[in-house]
Amino acid sequence: MQHRKRIPPAEAIQYLDSLLQDLHGQPESVTAANACGRVLAKSIVSDVSIPAFRRSMMDGFAVQAEDTSSADESSACTLRIVGTSMPGNGWTGNLQSGEAVRVMTGAPVPEAADAVVPFELTSTLPAGVRISSPIAAGKNVSEIGEDIRSGQQLLDAGRSLRPQDIGLLSATGCSEITVIRRPRIRLIITGSELLPAGTRPHGHRVADSNGPMLEALVSRDGGTSLFHGITPDDPDSIRELLEEGLRDKADVLLVSGGSSAGDEDFAPDLIAQLGELPVHGISMRPGAPAGIGRIGNCPVFLLPGNPVACLFAYDMFAARAVRQLGGRPQQWPYRPIESTLLKPLHSAIGRLDYARVRMSEEGIVPIAISGGSVLSSTTIADGFVLIPPETDRISAGDTARMWLYGG
Ligand code: AMP
Ligand code: MG
Hints:
The protein has helices spanning 9-20, 163-171, 210-220, 235-247, 267-274, 307-325, 376-380, and strands at residues 27-31, 44-45, 55-56, 60-63, 77-85, 99-103, 115-118, 122-125, 128-131, 141-142, 153-155, 176-180, 184-189, 194-195, 206-207, 224-226, 252-256, 276-280, 284-285, 291-295, 298-303, 335-340, 345-346, 352-359, 364-368, 383-387, 393-394, 399-404. The protein has 407 residues and is α+β, with helices and mostly antiparallel strands. The protein has four domains: 9-26 and 182-325, 3-Layer(aba) Sandwich (Molybdenum Cofactor Biosythetic Enzyme, Chain A); 27-50 and 158-180, Molybdopterin biosynthesis moea protein, domain 2, CATH 3.90.105; 55-142, Molybdopterin biosynthesis moeA protein, domain 3 (Beta Complex); 336-404, Beta-clip (Beta Barrel), CATH 2.40.340. The site of magnesium ion (MG) has 6 residues, from loops.
C-alpha cells in the first residue's frame, strides 16, 4: 500500500472521534473490594443516614446539658449514674433530669440526653458523677445524618473511585458497585526480527519493547490487554490475529510494527480489506506511518514499530479511544507546566513534532525531536513539548508547555 498524502493530526482525531461517537463504555458490577480505581457507571445516592442514630463522639457521660448550667468549681453538680451505653449495645432506659449515663465513643446517646461530658472533665464519687463546669447542648453528640443524609448523592457517575470512596460506599451498605467495564485491547505485535520481551537480544534480532510498553499504557488508561505473543511479518498470521481479536470481542485492536509501506508491511492492506483505513500516514514526527481505521465497529490503530513513534502514536490516538471506552476523560494523564524554553526547537509547517525535553532550574532543555527508535530519549526526558503543525519553531526564551511524564 502506498502512503497517500499525510493527514494532519487534527483530521486523524476528527475521524477517530467519529468512530468513538457510537461507542460507549459498558457497565458491570464489581464488589467494593475490587472497585478502587474503577470508573463509576451511575451516580450513587445513599438510602441510609450516617450516623443512623445519635452517636457519642467521646468516652464520657451523657447528660441533659441543662443540669450542668450552673456548675462551677465551688458548686459542682453531681448526677446519679443510671447505666452504661456501649457501641452496638445501647442503654435502653429513660434518662431523667439529675441522671447521667456512661457512654463510650461510638455508642448511642440516650434519647433524653443532649450532651456528653468527657471523662476528663468529671470525677466519679460514690454518689455519682461530679461535673464542675457547664456543657453546651449538642456537645460531643453526632446527630443523625451529620455525615450522610438519606437521599444525598454521594458520588457522581464518571468518577474514578478513590480508596475513601470505597470506604464511604461500604459504610452505606453498598457491596456491589456498577462500574464501567475495562475496555479489552487486543495487542498484535508484529516483526519477524522480534524476540519475546525480556529475551537478551542476539544476532540481528531485537527484543520486543512495544508489547510490554503498550500493556503498561493500556493499563494506565484503564484497559485490559489481550496479548498472546509476537507474530512474524506474515499476512496470513496477521489476518488471523485481526480476525481472532474480533472473535474475542476486543474493543480496540492495536497493531505494532509493519504499519508503513515496506515489503514487510501487511497490516495496512489487511485492515483496508477487512474494514476501512481512511487514516494512514499522519503529519507527525515521530510516528508518520501511523494509521487509524476500523473493522466492523472496532477501532484499529496502526502503531509504528519504532518504540518512540509507537508511544507517541498510542498517546495521540489510541489512548483517546481506550480512555473514552473506559469512561475516563480523554485528556492525558500527563501534567502540563509552562516554562521558558532554553534552546530553540525546529520543526516544519504542517507537522506535529514530539520533542523530548528535560526540566532544569532555568527552564526546559530539549533533548531530541527525531530518532523515533531511540527509546532512551523518553526515559532520560522528564517530559515532552509538542510543536504544533502551524509553527515551524519555538524560539529560545519563549514560554513553552511541557507535559510531564511523571506525576
Ligand atoms: P516497523 O514499523 O515494523 O517497520 O519497524 C520499525 C523499527 O522498529 C524496526 O527497527 C523494528 O525492528 C523496530 N520494532 C518493530 N517492532 C518493535 C517492537 N515490538 N519492539 C521494539 N522494536 C520494534
Ligand atoms: Mg517490521
